[in-house]
């Protein structure tokens, strides 16, 4: 199969969006904004069909990422995630992914409100890999 992003052969990840025929390499998909869910059926979605956050969160002027303290986008998007429990914790995808890898499943929680269950469910759904170690 040819990758829909780089056009090279060997693509094996298929989008699980309804009637979507996109197939891509995992690294190409990660660079393009595709989401792979690391739980249950291990589903993957292209940039058009990836899950989005439906959190009502109002940003106070220029909100910083709680991990790196640099500015985040003004609304939840692929690169900017919000805690679904408190809606006050904003962070970059790469920052919260690093936090998840170092904290692992038994210690990974919202850096602000410390919610674990709701936070982990949402992060899993949005493609954050949380190792069980």
TrEMBL record:
InterPro entries: EPHD (IPR034732), PHD-type_Zinc_Finger (IPR051188), Zinc_finger_PHD-type_CS (IPR019786), Znf_PHD (IPR001965), Znf_RING (IPR001841), Znf_RING/FYVE/PHD (IPR013083). Residues 65-114 form the RING-type domain. Keywords: Ligase, Metal-binding, Zinc, Zinc-finger. Signal peptide: none annotated. Gene3D superfamilies: Zinc/RING finger domain, C3HC4 (zinc finger) (3.30.40.10). It comes from the Eukaryota. Residues 1-50 form the PHD-type domain. The keyword Coiled coil does not apply. GO terms for molecular function: ligase activity; zinc ion binding. GO terms for cellular component: nucleus. This is G2E3 ligase. It comes from Dromas ardeola.
């Amino acid at each position: 199969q040819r990758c829909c992003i780089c056009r090279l052969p060997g693509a094996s990840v298929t989008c699980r969006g309804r009637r979507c025929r996109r197939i891509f390499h995992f690294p190409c998909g990660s660079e393009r904004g595709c989401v792979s869910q690391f739980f249950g059926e291990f589903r993957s979605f292209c940039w058009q069909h990836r899950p989005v956050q439906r959190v009502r969160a109002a940003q106070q002027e220029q909100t910083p990422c709680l991990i790196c303290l640099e500015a985040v986008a003004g609304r939840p998007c692929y690169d900017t995630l919000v805690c679904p429990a408190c809606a006050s914790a904003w962070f970059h995808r790469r920052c919260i992914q690093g936090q998840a890898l170092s904290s692992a499943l038994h210690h990974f929680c919202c850096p602000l409100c410390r919610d674990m269950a709701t936070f982990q469910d949402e992060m899993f759904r949005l493609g954050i890999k949380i190792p069980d170690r």
